UniProtKB/TrEMBL annotation:
A Pfam family this chain is assigned to: Melibiase
Gene3D superfamilies, per the entry: Aldolase class I (3.20.20.70), alpha-galactosidase from lactobacil brevis (2.70.98.60)
GO molecular function, one term: alpha-galactosidase activity
Classification of source organism: Bacteria, Bacillati, Actinomycetota, Actinomycetes, Micrococcales
Name of the protein this chain belongs to: Alpha-galactosidase
Cited InterPro entries: Aldolase_TIM, Alpga-gal_N_sf, Alpha-glycosidase_related, GH, Glyco_hydro_36
GO biological process, one term: carbohydrate catabolic process
């Protein structure tokens, strides 16, 4: 039996091939005018079990013995509500393992989502050690063969205060050398991989990456949609470079799934796009994210948030401190006011006592309700900070909930930085969180929660599970179900995903929450590369980068901070109540700009006209394009390098923020195919600029007619 199946939508098609001697595989992918033709060698499913490992021996996600022996059983296409699915059923007869791979696509979106369910149809237990969500060759996108085409791997490392730092390296290259593996008749064995352990899914690296063809520019971009442990790898074999993605594995995380006869296991989802270049691939991934996020009123009109924490109250709110901030935030135009950490604390050192989530009586002599009433009276939605998944070791809740409601190892509760971690597999843990949220919404009318997450419990609990990693995966899935339940009960509630900045900024979380903190970075000069890179990992309208101007700053520095907030979801802080007229005017101008940019922001696709930002770049530039309108967010961090050429930018650039400070100059570059921006201020400076790609005018202008053009 020989088969060839083409499936997809007009924007993206996949071709599968198989015969009676070989497993089904991806043979071709076409999207955005690019076609990648793939060699034989990687089957659609590639499980490693205790009883059947790799051929040849290796630590890779691919080249499993069972994968080679799987055969096609059936396939069907299912259409539902703008979505099309291809369900491919394959089977491994010796073990009785059946695999149902679901590939799905949404009309108009050039992306594919993949997950596989493994079902044990055999007579004895099977023990999975790893199971990729998706694996495929980069293939041949030009005249070269798949084995000879060279690529560049783009990946991002992350850490607290230094999120989303993208780098590139060649494939083949120093980490992926040519080793003449074809002479051995065997695939290589190196298992270079990007791995995340524990529950800070983006605390070490991002669960996404890109492969860019060095000859054609064609770009693969992928993401794993999981807030727990994961692994992705880019390696080479005798046929060429490949990409493979997975949730937890035995080798990396000690994960094991025991499937008794009739049991099943489903991989974490992974998604993939193919574009003509990096910008096209991220555009497709952005469209995919918008199509796959939970419906919410905030999606179309992201509210402007003031939060009292960053470089301001720093977790020490009181009625006396909050009241002037509430008034100033309302006057500036904020729509949500969030009281951050500390609102539940009576003792002044709340870190190890959190978990009960009852308002402090010492901080709010008249009660928290009076403060929240003031927020509402000033026309804003009231928000509270919450770290729901942890319980401090000194919290009364620690002795109320059953021991099984906490993550534990060998019968002892896991402690990390003076906190226990709830195990959301247990109904008592989930009930505690539900009761907390419902009480705060009902009693105080809270409409916004900043959900923080400041510890990582490691591999997880070994209670009632074959492995701690398996228990953690079940906890992760229970956590997502809990979030869904909260929004089912309170559909207008706005949820911010925060995790020590962006330590858990993966698409499993982002598909459910309305905004994501991009960092805890408190140095305004270090924030731009974080803010500019954030739309690679999330939607621009979700990317909440702190804008924390202060009265003591020079006006250019204050504007610099505000521009960082305008790079995505506007998220304001700072002692607004202490500002003079000029500083307060800047803030009001930024809030007005954020409101006016909203319709553009929620439909725009990001691009990087001078390349992906690097940590120490003098210039950082992010573009947001919708139809023919382009918004540029540009930061000049080193006034000794006052000029930058923006390829492809059009004449007629308008400075839309700040309106009260001098405009940067913009002149056509050599050849007329770029615009040269110049910062004339002699200091660090940042601007939000806009142009119409069809505009015949030139220079930089302010939007107000009385400002005129400043050169």
């Amino acid at each position: 039996m020989t088969g060839r199946l083409q499936w997809g939508i007009p924007e993206l098609t996949l071709t599968l091939e198989w015969d009676e001697f070989s497993a089904p595989r991806l043979a071709e992918v076409s999207a955005a005018g690019v076609t990648s033709t793939m060699p034989a060698g990687l089957p659609l499913v590639d499980p490693v079990t205790v009883g059947a490992g790799h051929v040849p021996a290796s630590g890779r996600l691919v080249h499993a013995q069972i994968g080679l022996e799987v055969r096609m059983v059936a396939h069907e296409t299912v259409a539902r509500a703008g979505r099309t699915e291809l369900r491919v059923t394959t089977r491994h007869e010796p073990t009785g393992l059946e695999f149902v791979t679901v590939l799905s696509a949404v009309a108009g979106v050039a992306a594919v989502r993949s997950a596989t369910t493994v079902i044990n149809r055999g007579a004895r237990a099977q023990r999975l050690r790893s199971m990729p969500s998706l694996s495929l060759y980069a293939g041949a996108t030009g005249s070269e063969s798949a084995a000879d085409e060279s690529w560049e791997l783009h990946r991002a490392t992350s850490e607290w205060l230094g999120e989303g730092r993208w780098t590139a390296e060649p494939v083949p290259g120093p980490r992926f050398p040519r080793i003449a593996e074809e002479l051995t008749g065997h695939n290589p064995r190196a298992d270079e991989a990007v791995v995340s352990t524990g529950t800070w899914s983006t605390g070490r690296a991002l669960p996404m990456g890109m492969l860019v063809s060095r000859s054609t520019g064609a770009t693969w971009a992928w993401q794993l949609e999981h807030q727990g442990e994961w692994r992705w790898e880019v390696n080479r074999d005798t046929a060429g470079p490949y990409v493979a993605m997975s949730g937890p594995t035995d080798a990396d995380h000690g994960w094991l799934a025991v499937l008794e006869p009739g049991d099943e296991f489903t991989t974490v989802p992974a998604s993939l796009v193919l574009g003509s270049d990096v910008d096209a691939a991220i555009s497709a991934l952005t469209a995919y994210r918008r199509a796959h996020r939970r419906a919410h009123v905030d999606n179309a009109r992201p509210a402007i948030v003031f939060n009292d924490y960053m470089n301001t109250l720093n977790g020490d709110p009181t009625t006396e401190k909050l009241e002037p901030l509430i008034d100033a935030a309302a006057e500036a135009g904020a729509e949500i006011f969030c009281i951050d950490a500390g609102w539940y604390d009576d003792g002044g050192d709340w870190w190890d006592s959190v978990g009960e989530w009852k308002p402090s009586t010492t901080r709010f002599p008249g009660g928290l309700g009076l403060v929240i009433d003031r927020i509402k009276a000033r026309g804003m939605v009231a928000g509270l900070w919450l770290e729901p998944e942890v319980v401090g070791v000194k919290s009364p809740v620690a002795d109320v909930l059953p021991a099984e409601a906490f993550m534990q190892r060998a019968g002892e509760r896991i402690v990390e930085h003076d906190r226990y971690h709830l195990d959301l597999r247990h109904p008592a843990a989930r009930a505690h969180l539900d009761a907390t949220v419902d009480r705060l919404v009902t009693e105080f009318g809270v409409g916004f929660f900043k959900l923080d997450y400041n510890i990582n419990p490691g591999t997880g609990s070994d209670h009632a599970s074959i492995s701690a990693a398996a228990a953690l995966l079940d906890h992760n899935r229970a956590h997502l179900a809990w979030l869904d339940g909260v929004l089912d009960r309170h559909p207008d509630l706005v949820l911010e995903s925060c995790s020590s900045g962006a330590m858990r900024a993966d698409w499993a979380m982002l598909s459910r929450t309305q905004l994501q903190s991009t960092s805890d970075q408190q140095d305004f000069l270090l924030y731009p590369p974080i803010a500019a890179a954030a739309p690679l990992a999330m939607l621009p309208e979700q990317a909440a980068s702190w804008a924390y101007p202060q009265a003591h700053m020079a006006l250019e520095e204050a504007a610099f901070c505000l521009v960082t907030g305008l790079a995505g979801r506007f998220y304001l802080s700072g002692y607004l109540n202490e500002m003079d007229e000029a500083h307060a005017g800047l803030v009001a101008d930024a809030v007005a700009a954020a409101a006016s940019l909203r319709p553009h922001l929620v439909e725009a696709v990001p691009f990087w006209p001078i390349g992906l930002p690097r940590w120490d770049d003098a210039w950082v530039v992010l573009g947001l394009r919708h139809d023919t309108t382009v918004v540029l967010i540009a930061w000049n961090r080193d006034p000794a390098v006052p000029e930058i050429s923006i390829p492809g930018a059009a004449d007629g650039i308008e400075q839309i923020f700040p309106r009260s400070l001098d405009a940067w100059s913009a002149e056509p570059g050599e050849g007329g195919e770029s615009i040269v921006l110049r910062n004339p201020t002699g200091s660090v400076s940042a601007r939000v600029l806009q142009y119409d790609a069809t505009s015949p005018t030139s220079g930089v202008t302010h939007p107000s007619s009385d400002a005129g053009a400043r050169r």
